[in-house]
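Obj: model holo form, ligand = 2-oxoglutaric acid.
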Amino acid sequence: MTLSAAQCAQYDTDGFVRMPSLLSDAEVSILRDEVGRLATIEDECVFREGTDGTPKTVFRMHESDGATASVPFRALSLTPRVLGAARQALKDDALYIHHTKLNMKGAVEGSVWPWHQDFGSWYLDGIAKPHMTTLMVMLDDATEVGGCLYFLPGSHKRGRIAPRWDDTTAYKFWALPPSDVRQALADHGDPIPITGKAGDAVIFDCNLMHASSHNLSAQDRWQMYYCFNRVANRPRDVENPRPDYVRSKNWQPIEIGPDRIDDPSLSPAAE
Ligand SMILES: O=C(O)CCC(=O)C(=O)O
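Output (holo structure tokens):
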């Protein structure tokens, strides 16, 4: 069991649970080196910004094929620590990954994500039920001044709130209407900053209201997100589906692998 019974209960009550020191310092170092490699790739899965083309988001590192395929990021997704926790959170062993992404919120320039629920968008991908969870791993220390995530504990229990298209920030996406956010803040209290050390993690419900602010610090803030869905909840066909790197069509259930991220059996030469 990756999560204790108390952690599972907390996940159900608050909509998230922290997983401190999920990664060792050595594992953080391997993944940070891997980010350096991925950031040089020119592909639709690597989004850049600014005049110098700094990488902002990298997608689809969990698959064994494609330009951004990554042995250590894929291996991490299959560890008992990560996949085991996702299985416990979703109370189902047959899971696949809807998408993976690395958000590189750059020092000084990295900007705000308005309040939203992930299931706001994922429902529009054709996914019927909020049986989805995200495990986020910090690859830098996450601080308030550096633009960490904020969660509103218990807000997942409100269910999905119809989002509105928000193009007022650098991340144009389906955000929550401000009036709904104000009401939720009045009902649930202050948001919680998800600060921590590189290697810490948190797993959270797809209806949990969350946001992050501008990175005002001198340090980059890199965070990796693994988004899991039940195979039984895979999307139905929709008109104009989003690309595969954000709405995977690989619905094969994934199996737990070794508890290490440098597993040689996952290297391309071994496949
Ligand atoms: O990385 C961030 O600051 C926010 C990311 C986020 O909220 C999301 O991907 O849903």
